[in-house]
Amino acid sequence: MAQNKQPSFETIAVQAGHSPDPTTLSRGVPVYRTSSFTFKSAEHAANLFGLKEFGNIYSRLGNPTNAVLEARVTQLEGGAASVAVASGTAAIFNAVITIARAGDEIVSASNLYGGTYTMFDAILPDLGITTKFADVLRPETFEAAITEKTRLLYLESIGNPVLDLADIDAVAAIAKKRHLPLVVDGTFTTPYLLKTIEHGADVVINSLTKWLGGHGTAIGGIATDAGTFDWSDPKFTLFNRPDPNYHGLRWAVDLPPELRKIAFALRTRTVPLRNLGACLSPDNAWIFLQGIESLHVRMPLHVQNALAVAKFLKDHPKAAWVRYPGLEGDPSRELARKLLKKGAGGMVVFGVKGGRPAGEKFIEALRLFSHLANVGDAKSLALHPASTSHSQLTEEQQRASGLTPDLVRLSIGLENIDDIIADLERGFAAV
Ligand SMILES: Cc1ncc(COP(=O)(O)O)c(C=O)c1O
């Protein structure tokens, strides 16, 4: 092997962040089931709390098992530091309140996972942070929504559930021009299909619950700091004024340059994670590490099966329409050709002719597909978002995010493709 070659994605996925434990020689990553860690001395304790030295304090702030996961995802994303938390939702909330405070605004794509939409549209405004929604298909609408109060731009790499692919390069160019961080939820692409940092994301969110974990067995999320954003602009008051949440520290001013670079990661760990408490259990971190070890083996099959399903649905007389960014003729196909060179993901959505009642019959007839509210499992999953995951949105909000009442969402698993298609035929036969 060539000297000094950076490890490849596959090797990072299997090995990064851990070498055999020096005490026990354990090859597997140990699960550190402990709430707290002893200090070597009073000085050691003070140094840890003062960020003069890094180490373990209490598992709400960090844990050695979680640290392996964080190091691994950081390297997979090509970032500088990551913070793992209890869910993708917590990662998003923590990221926003690390950057924005009451009186500030954020600009977000409107085609979002329903929970994120509600957080941005209803919960953040109650906390004084207002969201302006932009149209992901028209990047110029992000720029038009920016005011002097805007503190970040936000989008999903592939939007849930309509599967419009975002032109990340175009939105990143706007973010750079207006000196705003771009936060990208890359859950639907994973770093295997798209390294959003290479396209200008300053912070990447992943719901670990989905393809990174890959087996529908645990809930978790992670935010990765690209280490690219300069927070010294005074408009980022949370980074430039003495922070009463952390010893009066000015994150963009007082830290040494190598830590200033990861000021977002440090602040999201030491302020929202430490004080609001949505921490990830080390058992779940371990589960996600098992999943990540096979990410590069699973994703090509998710992609291959999803494309075959999309082609099957395109030609089916009982399907009104189908969306898959990898399908010829799909509105996102051209962008997918540019951004998603390894494939367009594992999700397919379509409309059943006959609308919602037909869609319900279709889903109830499925046997191989599980009818449930998750995506990114090795098992194939089906859902009717308008009546479930996105039902808290008004019809108008659903339409704004591109969601129609007849849409059936499929997360295509790793089963044999003939069995998957046979099950879809069973669904159509019931309509
Ligand atoms: C794109 C996307 N982001 C974030 C989330 C939230 O993740 P979690 O369920 O881990 O909180 C979801 C959940 O479905 C999602 O689809």
What does the model show?
With 431 residues, the chain is an alpha/beta fold. It has two domains: 283 residues, Aspartate Aminotransferase, domain 2 (3-Layer(aba) Sandwich), CATH 3.40.640; 134 residues, Aspartate Aminotransferase, domain 1 (Alpha-Beta Complex), CATH 3.90.1150. It is built from 17 helices and twelve strands. The protein has a seven-stranded mixed beta sheet with strand order 1-7-6-5-4-2-3, sandwiched between helices. Helix 7 links the parallel strand 4 and strand 5. Helix 1 packs antiparallel against helix 3, helix 3 packs parallel to helix 12 and helix 4 packs across helix 11. The model has no long low-confidence stretch (mean pLDDT 95). Pyridoxal-5'-phosphate (PLP) binds next to helix 4 and helix 5.
List the helices and strands and how they pair.
Blueprint: H1 9-15, H2 42-49, H3 64-77, E1 81-85, H4 88-99, E2 105-109, H5 114-126, E3 130-134, H6 140-145, E4 150-156, H7 168-177, E5 182-185, H8 190-193, E6 203-207, E7 221-225, H9 237-240, H10 257-260, H11 263-276, H12 282-292, H13 295-314, E8 319-323, H14 333-339, E9 347-352, H15 355-365, E10 370-371, E11 381-383, H16 395-400, E12 407-411, H17 417-429
Parallel strand pairs: 2-3, 2-4, 4-5, 5-6, 10-11
Antiparallel strand pairs: 1-7, 6-7, 8-9, 9-12, 11-12
Helix pairs in contact: 1-3, 3-12, 4-11, 15-17
The chain binds pyridoxal-5'-phosphate.
